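Sequence, please.
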């Protein structure tokens, strides 16, 4: 795990030295919180494992610990916009927002996916002004302005609808277009978009650790008028003893971590 530890030390040093929260005002983060279910069984999808009687013994104490842990990560980034994936419902989002030290408003939409997991957006209401929210299967699109800049923020899980919405907004050319999440289906080589995480990935960074090493499990794609690059947000306390992201479970064994993914972030210049 030498690669994992080397990356963790390097990215931690960069974050600590530059003070990203203080130096750049218009920051946006994306955080896959890795299956944050409440403890109540759903009638619409199978979440029985994430109940007190389920195979993962997901009880109130474990739920509260994870909510508080996610809120601590959000507070440590101190960014005006934080997108989340992997929250079960609005109550989960509300619990996270209430545990944050910062005063975040939120937007949540039910995606009606098979696993019951949704997107949400936490934001400072004096920085981000939302005009319209659109959602569908595996995507959520937020149209508004951030610090006076027109912006279209799209959260995607391989969504073709998200790609069409982003393409239309990028072609119009009247706002920044930022797409975050699983964007492997986006054409970035010779189209309207650029992969803002490409440079960090080429430097050996990633937000998930697999047997091959660090991988960009989530990405940031922007319109070509935006030249900002994205990166990975890491702290030593987000990592386990082997140097990878400290997950909540390893298989079925409860380990008490926050997520098997690290947040990614970008600043709009």
């Amino acid at each position: 795990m030498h690669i994992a530890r080397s990356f963790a030390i390097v990215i931690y040093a960069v974050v600590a030295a530059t003070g990203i929260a203080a130096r750049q005002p218009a920051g946006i983060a994306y955080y896959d919180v890795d299956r944050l279910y409440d403890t109540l069984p759903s009638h619409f999808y199978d979440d029985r494992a994430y109940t007190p009687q389920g195979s993962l013994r997901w009880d109130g104490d474990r739920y509260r610990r994870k909510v508080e842990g996610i809120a601590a990560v959000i507070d440590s980034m101190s960014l005006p916009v934080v997108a989340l994936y992997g929250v079960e419902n609005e109550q989960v989002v509300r619990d996270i927002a209430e545990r944050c030290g910062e005063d975040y408003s939120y937007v949540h939409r039910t995606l009606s996916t098979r696993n019951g997991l949704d997107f949400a957006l936490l934001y400072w209401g004096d920085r981000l002004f939302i005009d319209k929210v659109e959602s569908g299967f595996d995507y959520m699109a937020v149209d508004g302005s951030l610090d006076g800049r027109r912006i279209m923020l799209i959260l995607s899980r391989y969504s073709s609808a998200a790609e069409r919405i982003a393409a239309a907004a990028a072609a119009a050319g009247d706002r920044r277009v930022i797409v975050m999440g699983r964007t492997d289906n986006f054409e970035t080589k010779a189209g309207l978009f650029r992969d803002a995480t490409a440079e960090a990935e080429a430097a050996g960074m990633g937000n998930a650790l697999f047997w091959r090493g660090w991988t960009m499990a989530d990405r940031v794609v922007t319109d070509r008028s935006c030249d900002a690059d994205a990166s990975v947000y890491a702290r030593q306390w987000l990592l386990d003893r082997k140097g990878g992201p400290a997950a909540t479970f390893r298989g079925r064994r409860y380990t008490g971590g926050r997520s098997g993914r690290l947040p990614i972030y970008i600043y709009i210049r």
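Confidence is low (pLDDT under 50) at residues 1-6, 8-24.
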